[in-house]
Write a structure and sequence with these properties.
Elements (H helix, E strand, L loop, with lengths): L7 E4 L3 E10 L2 H5 L3 E7 L7 E4 L6 E2 L3 H10 L11 H14 L2 H20 L6 H22 L3 H18 L1
Antiparallel strand pairs: 1-2, 1-5, 2-3, 3-4
Helix pairs in contact: 2-5, 3-5, 4-5, 5-6
Length: about 170
């Protein structure tokens, strides 16, 4: 899919970026028809990312409607807990790489619920859970913030409210 200048796109691991330009970097690129997206991450206005149009793993940012639909579905999104720590970490990595909002919700929901249980037992959240929770939260909340035109903190509170709703229904 081709994107346009001004589009907000989601890039795996980096998160939401705005396409600033589409251009050839060098004269040789024109002959090879190798166009690049010039993008700025929403979280870091000073940074610029150059990605070849031909092999970009980008997707359009969620629309406002898609964002709200995702939030409303949080109670229904399953969290498949994996007891094996190595396999669990791999599932976290895969979800981050696929950059699928629903997979990010599943990670956030799973780790949040596990964290609540551990805290109730007087235990801390594991370092692995904390790291992937933060990555998944940042990717999802920034995207929802752009889609819904709301600050990240407000998105965070909304998501936690919906996760807590799903606990009541369990």
């Amino acid at each position: 899919m081709k994107y346009e200048k001004g589009d907000f796109v989601s890039k795996p691991v980096t998160g939401i970026c705005k396409i600033e330009d589409i251009l050839y970097l060098t004269p040789g690129d024109e002959k090879n028809k190798k166009l690049y997206y010039v993008m700025k991450p929403v979280e870091d206005e000073k940074e610029k990312i150059y990605i070849p149009v031909s092999n970009s793993r980008l997707r359009l940012c969620l629309t406002k409607e898609e964002g709200w639909n995702l939030i409303k579905r949080i109670p229904e999104i399953p969290t498949a807990w994996i007891n094996n720590e190595k396999m669990r970490e791999q599932s976290y990595k895969d979800a981050i790489k696929t950059n699928d909002p629903e997979a990010l919700v599943a990670i956030i929901k799973m780790i949040y619920q596990r964290k609540q249980k551990r805290l109730a037992q007087g235990k801390k959240c594991t370092a692995t859970d904390a790291r992937y929770f933060q990555i998944a939260e940042n990717l999802l909340y920034v995207e929802l913030g752009v889609a819904l035109e709301k600050p990240k903190q407000e998105i965070c509170k909304t998501i936690i409210d919906y996760i807590n709703q799903s606990k009541l229904e369990d």
